[in-house]
Amino acid sequence: MVLKRLLAGIGVGGATVETVLDTDRAQPGGALRGTVHVQAGDVEQKIDRLTVGLQARVEVESGDYESVQDVEFHRVQLGGEAAIAPGQTFSVPFQLSVPWETPISSYGGRPLHHMNLGVNTRLEVAKAVDPGDLDPVAIEPLPSQAALLDALVSLGFGFQHADVEKGRVLRTRQTLPFYQEFEYRSPGHYQGLNSLELTMVSDHAGMDVVLELDKKPGLLFSESRDTFHSLSVGHQEAVGYDWRGYLHHWIGSLAGRRRLL
Q: Which of 61, 65, 214, 224 has the most CB atoms at less than 10 Å from its CB?
């Protein structure tokens, strides 16, 4: 009997948890809703805590080495201590707010390559923590973010991948310990450009945009291959902004047809 109770405390013969999302799509600043269903095991158990949270796969660079970590960046408690009898079941509905800086994992109705993001449910029993399963969710861009992404597509930039990197982007409104970066192949009409990288850091008021151009060697008037540009814009302003014209003018002035032959 003692052995059985001990095993139940670490998950063998103990309670099981299933999370059902009402929708698996949301935008930054929005919310995800669902229900956690708990099924008791074959012994009585004491639940210490039940939580749901958001988790992202994050790239971590250390010197010449690169690794990945699963990083929780938002978690809420659904219930505290409770005793559940053998065979007992109960359900807990929840609403999980989506932070404004949450990485985008879906664009144009399609998942973004390289992104791993979802809702993690944890049940703590007898001071043992069930690591929980990750229920994938699609975080779609805000209209302000989509306007900028659409402009890059209209200019011919080819999306390669998006990733989430640990670290900080200086002089932005960033609060989370990581940021998201989009990488694009340059279209042929920007002959002096290899690729473009984009980072958007948002809050309720607007977003900071950071662009990095990887220029080809030999571009006139260039001291280095990388050129950075940043700006801040409100969400409403960004939706109606002429991003296509703005980007074409800026990129073309730096990486257009002017190259050293």
A: 214
